[in-house]
Amino acid sequence: MLSILRIFLLGLSFFIFTPPALLLSIVRPFNPNNIYFFACLWGPVAQKILGFDVRLTNHQIMKDNRPCVFIMNHQSNYDIVLGGIIKVKRTVSLGKKEILWFPIFGLFYWLSGNILIKREKKRKALAAMKKVNRIIKEKNISILIMPEGTRSKGKGLGSFKKGAFRTAVGAEVPIVPICVSSWSKSINLNKWNSGLLYINVLEPIKTNNMTSKDVEKLTVLARDRMFHEIERLDGLL
Length: 237
Prior knowledge:
Layout: H1 2-27, H2 33-50, E1 52-57, H3 60-64, E2 69-72, H4 79-86, E3 91-96, H5 105-111, E4 115-117, H6 122-139, E5 142-145, H7 163-171, E6 175-180, H8 183-186, E7 195-201, H9 215-234
Parallel strand pairs: 1-7, 2-5, 2-6, 3-4, 3-5
Antiparallel strand pairs: 6-7
């Protein structure tokens, strides 16, 4: 019963805080800090509603290595709450084009400079990634990508798609992995204090002097580091 109430309140708060963020994005369209404003506004409220604690370490790495490609493991729809907790300026995300059809939020998401792609159409997806390269270089903006491409739903770290790594190599910026402990192993929304999540930001993986030939190796390296770190974090639960 408590979990249902929390989900309702989370959705309600989301739609309460989105309109002011949308108004800001209309005033200053495609400003990447629109997302930061929304994160600061909604993130603490969302965390309070869900009732979990967070131990975030090495957050300074996110501030010191800019621009970059952030990568994070993708577990559930609640990952959006983590974006509101981590909070980092001048960072946009990569999302499915269908997000545009979400009432109010879809328009806000687009006007905040986030990149929308239709993933099943490879040619358009590749064109979008080239656009991302240009944005990173010309506007000094970082991007957050979940390289699994789909939610793991408690099944562990999935295989990685190569788009994030092609982007980092093409833009000549580092990969910064963000590792989150398992929701399924630690969070119970039916408890008043629902649990604890560990989030650790790993040291950047440099892409200097890498070419497209290095993308496969880079993908494997990043996944391997994240896999072992998530196992370590889960061991702390």
